[in-house]
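User: For my dataset I need records formatted as: sequence, then structure tokens, nothing else. Please produce one.
Assistant:
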Amino acid sequence: MSNTNVQNTTNADGHEKITEHMSHDEHETAKAAARFGYGPLAHVSSEARLPAFGGEFQPGLYKPIADRKFANPAPLGLCGFALTTFVLSAINMQARNIMVPNIVVGSAFAYGGLVQLLAGMWAMAEGNTFGATALSSYGGFWIAFAIILTPGGFGIETAYTTGQDAAAFANALGLFLMSTLAFFLLFFTLDMAFLLLGIGYLLNTDGEAKTPIIKAGGFFGLLAAFLAWYNALAGIADDSNR
């Protein structure tokens, strides 16, 4: 018998023992009170809960999803995040001597941005607050990053390089990347990537970022991308897809 089944059996036994001498009205009152964390049933759950699972983007116990109306949106959002992070991180590590990041604009707008944002909205529809917040936030981040890197159209880099010192844009980009640390300290590898990239741009020399630090940020970004793909696979290879 699995740990989940044992836990559910224990909860059911405890629930019956506490409520065996209650009237129907007392039982309903106790259940209502338990929802707010007090009363005799506050620490006894009569509903099954599944353990935390990266494939569902659930950081804690959650309700079974066998009867849900929506498919699991987490793998889609994680794949959008993973591919965009992989491409940018490979460029940061100067793979194939590529150092200009503009090629990531397309995936940052469409896959890592729009698709991940939509996956976050679907996660909200199925009641996954953490998944909705994480996917939507990083979808919005990728769209914002794509806007910054879009040549010509938005003129953000031009605004910093016209009439200012050469380091102005690198400093501004470094502060933008480091600000994402406030979102999710749980994502250690991604936080390390953004932290190192931010430091690499801030510690610039006449607008040229520190290459070793940027490469280190790219390495942690690649780790984050592979971890996202691993969690996406876990969410796809579940019982509902057999």
